[in-house]
Design a protein that fits this description.
256 residues, 20% helix, alpha+beta, globular, 6 helices, single chain
């Protein structure tokens, strides 16, 4: 179990471990996989299964998951997180902690959720993100089919109200000044305007839940917009982040 780094895909993290195992044990062929994909901009628990343990992948990824993170209110991005810059701004002055708490019950229990178009779900046999990334401006993109998910709890751990918007018009396509010149996930990263409201959360949910979609739906329920700016998976089933090792510790872990 590793703590997946920021801007690494789950596939890249598994390949890093695969290379370390092959080098350490001089193995040419063996089975390896992960239980539950994490988005590139998310960090946290990634269960990696090797050899016979790969038979347990379905069992492991079916475990309940705990996520913490931050949502930004008053704006949206096409992918519901910072993989793409902001595309629209919305009113947010009416959003209060009481208003947020009043809409949370609609997210609890068994609910229908539409996955993000920037996701690996399939539409007509093709990955949804393929449609999203290949679509030309103004081209209509098919929507993923809603799926039944279960949210056991949705707690707001902090709320930071927004301030007055800048007097100068905001540009929709903002790129962070501190965007790394090179990283493993080669996509532009957006940034968070400091005047927008933000909330921190803790969500306990079942398999197949997209936290990015929860952010989108929360924004809609508040008659505004919202997107995910930070996400960390703290737990998968019985496995917690305190048990995970860093990716750069894999070699020393194998040498124990």
């Amino acid at each position: 179990m590793i703590d997946k780094p920021y801007q690494w895909t789950s596939f890249q993290a598994v390949n890093k471990i695969k290379s370390a195992i092959r080098h350490r044990y001089d193995l040419k062929k063996f089975k390896i996989g992960h239980a539950g994909t994490l988005d590139p901009l998310a960090t946290g628990v990634l269960l990696v299964c090797v050899g016979k343990a790969t038979k347990r992948i379905d069992e492991l990824q079916a475990g309940e998951k705990v996520y913490t993170g931050t949502m930004v209110l008053g704006a949206t991005t096409p992918c519901f997180d910072l993989e793409r810059p902001i595309d629209h701004y919305y009113p947010y002055e009416h959003i209060t902690m009481d208003a947020i708490q009043s809409v949370l019950p609609q997210f609890l229990g068994d609910v229908d959720q539409v996955p993000p178009i920037f996701s690996a779900v399939k539409i007509g046999g093709q990955r949804a993100y393929s449609y999203a990334r290949e679509a030309k401006e103004g081209e209509e993109i098919p929507s993923p089919t809603p799926k039944k998910i279960h949210i056991a709890s949705f707690e707001i751990t902090d709320f930071r109200p927004g301030t007055t918007a800048p007097s100068e018009p905001l540009e929709n396509n903002i790129i962070a000044d501190n965007t790394p010149t090179h990283h493993l996930y080669e996509h532009p990263l957006g940034t968070v305007p400091t005047h927008l409201p933000q909330l921190d959360f803790r969500i306990r949910c079942g398999k197949g839940t997209y936290i990015r979609s929860i952010a989108r739906d929360l924004g809609l329920s508040l008659e505004s917009g919202a997107f995910l700016s930070k996400l960390r998976r703290e737990q998968v089933g019985e496995h917690t982040i305190n048990q995970a090792i860093q990716l750069d510790q894999v070699d020393s872990f194998l040498n124990q």
